[in-house]
Amino acid sequence: MQISIPELLIQDGFMTQAEQEKIDDFSRRSGLSYIKILLNFGYLSRKNYERSLNNAGYEFKQIRDEDYDLDVLAKTELKFADAHLALPLRVENGKLVTLMANPSDELFKDYIRFTYDMEPEIILASDLDITWLSHILLGQKYVKSAVFELLNRDPDSSALTTFTTPQLIFTFGVFALVVIGMMLNFVNTSIAINVVLSSFFLVSIIFKLFLALVGSRFELHQAVTREEVREVVDDDLPIYTIHLPVYKEDKLIKKLIWNLQSLDYPREKLDIKLLIEEDDDKTLNAVRNLDFPAVFEVIVVPFHMPKTKPKACNYGLHFSRGTFLTIYDAEDVPDTDQLKKVVTLFNKLPSNYVCIQCALNYFNRGENFLTRMFTLEYSYWFDYMLPGLDTFDIPIPLGGTSNHFKFEFLIELGGWDPFNVTEDADLGVRAYAKGYKVAIINSTTYEEANNEMFNWVRQRSRWIKGYMQTHLVHMRNPVKLWKKVGWKGFLGFNFFIGATPVTFLVYPLLLAIFLCYLIFDLASIRSFFPDWVLFMSIINLMVGNILMIYVNMMAVFKRRYYELILFAIANPIYWLLHSWAAYKGLYQLIVKPFYWEKTNHGLSKVNNQAGAE
Amino acid sequence: MKLKFKIKVTRSQTLLIITLLIAIYYLVCGIYLNHLGYFNQETLFYVEKVRIIFEGLGYKLKVIGLTAPALPFFATFAFTSINSLLAPIIASALGTAALFYLMASTLVKKTDDDFYLLVLIILFLFHPGLLYTACSGKATYMVLIFFYMFFLNIFKYYTSNTTFHISIASICLVLLLFCDYKFIWLTLFFIPLIFSIALQSLNLAEKESIFRMTQSFNSPSLRRKLINKTFALYVILFVLPIASIICYKMLNLTNANDADYFLNSPYATWNVLAERFSYEKIALNPDFKNPEISLLITARMIIFCPLIVFAIVLFRRNPYQVLTLLTPFAFVEFLHIKYDKVFILHQYYLIFLILALLCFIIKAQPVKNGVLFKSVLGIIILVQLYTGYYFLHNSLIDDEKNFITILLNRTTDEQQDENRDMANYINGLPDGSKIMIDDAIAYPIVAFTSNIADLVLPYQENFLSAIETPGQYVNYILIANSKNLLNGYSILNGRYAPVVYQTGNNYSSLQKAYETDHWILYKLF
Questions:
Q1: CA dist A446 to A332, A362, A609, Å?
Q2: Sequence-distant (≥ 6) Cβ neighbours of residue B123 within 8 angstroms
Q3: According to the model, what pLDDT value does residue A562 have?
Q4: pLDDT tens track for B71-105
Q5: Please, which residues have CB within 8 angstroms of residue A260's CB and are 6 or more apart in sequence?
């Protein structure tokens, strides 16, 4: 009689009897298959698994080009195939050709016998290849849902249409008014535009200072204390899903494993999904070539436009098991107790709190000018602005990662908008509009700050474009939004989401006028603008700049990054980069609104663990 | 049937009612003193500038933006519609009441013992210095408010260690600077304090400061940390005030071609001439012995405010707080050296009173020997009331001395009678008569006139042309005569009249229309 795979692994010394029992026990409790647990919960590396089976005479086949029969495939549900890492392909010689990663999976063999009424002809294949093929062949239903679910359910919230007709009429109407005004009275129209823009600039910055001060007031507030985390009982913890959407992040896979292994959460209660795009063989091969056991499960997202992170996450939702769900980027280093803290806070908060946002910061802050400036910006954003917004009950634009959701709520809302390139900010506003709340927690995830200028501009242009998209989506019917989120939410949304891109677009213009006035003392500027306008504009610009610099200083002071404090002075230069990105984002919003500007990660030479301390 | 009404009043409502009563009390006192004729240079300066803004003709942007100190000047705007001459007094009365409210509300949060509240009320009702603050119309009230807020937040920072408090302190300092620029020098004397805070915050086993310092200087990593923290703390506290002043100076430079216009121009600030005049009038007397001598100034402050010694004793076990309390002493000593041709204004004495009260507010907790403590405090408060009177009464500055004299004697003040006379004469001139006045020194007269639109003043673009060819622009010229001690600071002085008389451009002659001891109004024919 042929020896079973678990026995084989014990015989080869890759597993112990105790570990096998542990896996069996976990399998019984969770309903997960043996092979799934073995390869995705840190018991055995794929290389060792293959080695052991090869030694026993098994042969792993390349299966990507195998023929398949759609009628055969139609009888098998993707989730079942994915759970067992097996896939029936076609009938051949009276037998059903079946791909299996674990040839001793009797349950799946019985399934074949009962469903197809024939014996399986097993082809042994790598679990990753089976996953890849099964998602491509059977995942269409899910990927369509990932793309169109929100559009079908709530078309008004989808960014598929960038500009609605009334928005276009309004935009061109304003533009026409300005042109007519300039033709009729050039000077007065210029004055009016200048006054409106510079006042808007100042008001928006004072609003930010105000929020920052409010946020800074609560900087010692601990939403969850260490004692509370210590009191958490592991057995009471729920299953926690972590989505890791990656694209060509092969260099980061090893780092990712270390970061995930350091999470203080029972391994069996983690449901980590590495979401890999169909055409991303680089990452898939990096996972295949790992020398040590992985702690995540690979999900392959079949090709479908738009090729965005929210689409991948929506797809991953179909295969997630957690009560709570969070998203990390591949290079993220979350605080080790973050998940426990979040669970504790969710238990403390009223049920209408559906999301908890963690602070983000950078582990490679000292690497170069750009990373320093990025750290200043993030410190201020996550440590002051978001708590400030939270205090005033204003919609919080969620950060790109480390936002922890109640799973059922995500499903209720239709997931992320795959057409929105800042899907998290959009989701935050949508949640708020439905009466849900977002909380902030005292836990930080350290990311890799973009250390290369063009890469930075790409990333930032996507963010700014996303803000524009989000603003356009939710301002399709301003009165409706007002009624949904109240006046505070409405103003907060407009000042925060709407004003941010506008500020960056306006900034270089104001700065240029100011510099011309200051350096060249241009007589023509004086003739255009009366002294009171120049006086006001200069005050607005200077006060605005100083206040923003100061707010940045405050934030790094709080983080105790004292060596960065002086870099805040360089903010006016940094904002010029923002302006560059803003114009790029605006251009893309018009010509390719759903295009996802990929940010390259793994460029930093700084060790992420060391930097996060 | 007997009806009984019982109204429940919370502690905060009580405080509001007390504040309201105090505000009314200040308003009554201020308006009463004003009716007795009490005015001071600063008040009249604000009145004149505010009236230019609301009633004047021509280019007023410079007056709006560059008149200093800016915040007290803006504060008078709100009350100008009630009565332009009373506007600064209303502002100071309400402002001082607000200061009381700020202090009292912090106090009641700290202690339930009404004794301390009573002490505060007594001081605000009867302390001559605080009455001067409330009823004079000067900017002192605003200086004290922001001074209080600044130090309150610094003290809070010591206990909370949050960026919030240090940032609010910094913002308060910015506001304080726009009430009195001289407080910028406070930044110098915080250096040792900040160094000490940074040193204490280092994670070292050693407790003694001197050994901590030795350790941190000898270790490169600790040394870097210490420098970074000291610098960061200093930046977070003072970068905003310093940057604000730089911006303000730049505005002065772009709009008045002089970065220090708000400090040095008599058109922009009242004290540039008033303080100098006040000093020279007394100090040039050969028999004059200046009581304000270095080091003795500290002694004078302690005599004025013995409560501060008591406050320092209260904090004897807290080195930061003690160093903080000593900082204003160094600051005032420095002011005396830096501005040696100026007497120390009463507001610099009052800051010690506010600081001492702040210490009691913060430390207002039950002490071991409560009765003895309160008795000593009561006696000191009584002494304090007397020293308040004594220092005002013996002040070398006329405005201060006059105030206490009029307050106690309730006699009419005649100091501004001459200016009023001249203003009344101008008010009686036929409608449409244009009068050229240099408000660098004649702002009290302008403040009393009824129609600013008829005056040709230096803020107007045609003023220089009117100086050159007065006949084309004005009918009258107000000249400071040789008896006027400030005549050297004005274009329109005794040396101007004969020139126009002799050159006789396009008018026939000048004739004295009205004359007082220090002013002559010429009519142009």
A1: 6, 5, 9
A2: B130, B353, B357, B381, B384, B385
A3: 85
A4: 999 999 989 999 999 999 999 999 999 999 999 99
A5: A242, A270, A272, A295, A296
Residues above pLDDT 90, as percent of chain A: 5
Asked if B427 has any chain A CB less than 8 Å from its own CB, the reply is no
Backbone angles phi, psi at B524, to 5 degrees: -95, 135
Cis check for the bond before B69: say yes or no (omega within 30 of 0). Answer: yes
Give contacts of B 168-197 with A, CB under 8 A.
168, 170
Using a 10 angstrom Cβ sphere, with 0-12 exposed, 13-18 middle and 19 or more buried, the burial of residue B333 is middle
Q: What is the ipTM of this complex?
A: 0.80
Amino acid at B6: K
pLDDT in tens, A489-508: 888 888 888 888 888 888 88
The alpha-carbon gap from B98 to the nearest alpha carbon of chain A, in Å, equals 22
CA distance linking residue A110 with residue A89, whole number of Å = 16
CB-nearest partner of B236 from A518, A538, A554 = A554
Residues A449 and B258: their CA atoms lie apart, in Å, by 44
Residues 6+ apart with CB under 8 A from A161: none
Confirm if A88 and A138 have CB atoms less than 8 A apart.
no
Q: Is the pLDDT of residue A1 over 60?
A: no
Chain B contacts in chain A segment 208-227 (CB below 8 A): 213, 216-217, 219-220
Average pLDDT over residues B253-259: 87
CA distance A314 to A417: 9
> What is the predicted pLDDT for the residue at A556?
84
Chain A: residue nearest B242 by CA?
A: A546
**B162 contact residues in A (CB cutoff 8 A):** 216-217, 219-220, 558
- Note whether A424 and A467 are within 8 A (CB): no
- Facing residue for A565 by CB, picked from B59, B162, B232: B232
8 Å CB contact of B254 and A538 = yes
Residues B499-510 have pLDDT tens digits of 556 555 554 567
Residue with tokens 């006027």: B484
pLDDT in tens, B511-522: 888 999 999 998
Q: What is the pLDDT of residues B106-134, one digit of tens each?
A: 998 888 888 889 999 999 999 999 999 99
Whether pLDDT at A238 is above 80 = yes
- The two tokens of residue A54 are 């090869």
Burial grade of B387 (CB within 10 A; 0-12, 13-18, 19 or more): buried
Q: Which of B164, B240, B243 is closest, CB to CB, to A219?
A: B164
C-beta atoms of B236 and A539 within 8 A: no
Question: What pLDDT score was predicted for residue B506?
Answer: 52
Which A residues 525-554 touch B at CB under 8 Å?
531-532, 535, 538-539, 542-543, 546, 549-550, 553-554
**Smallest CA–CA distance from A388 into chain B, residue:** B164
Least reliable range by pLDDT among A294-298, A528-532, B334-338: A528-532
Helical residues (DSSP H) of A185-220, grouped into ranges: 186-217
- Chain A residues whose CB is inside 8 A of the B254 CB are 518, 538
Could you tell me which of B442, B396, B390 has the C-alpha nearest to residue B275?
Answer: B396
Does B232 contact A557 at a Cβ distance shorter than 8 Å?
A: yes
DSSP at A368: S
Q: Taking CB atoms and an 8 Å cutoff, what residues of chain B touch A542? A: 247, 250
Cβ distance B231 to A220 less than 8 Å, yes or no, reads no
Name the phi and psi angles at B71, rounded to 5.
Answer: -70, -45
Among chain A residues, the shortest Cα distance to B230 is held by: A562
Residue in chain B closest to A553 (alpha carbons) equals B236
- Return the pLDDT at B143: 96
pLDDT of B3: 52
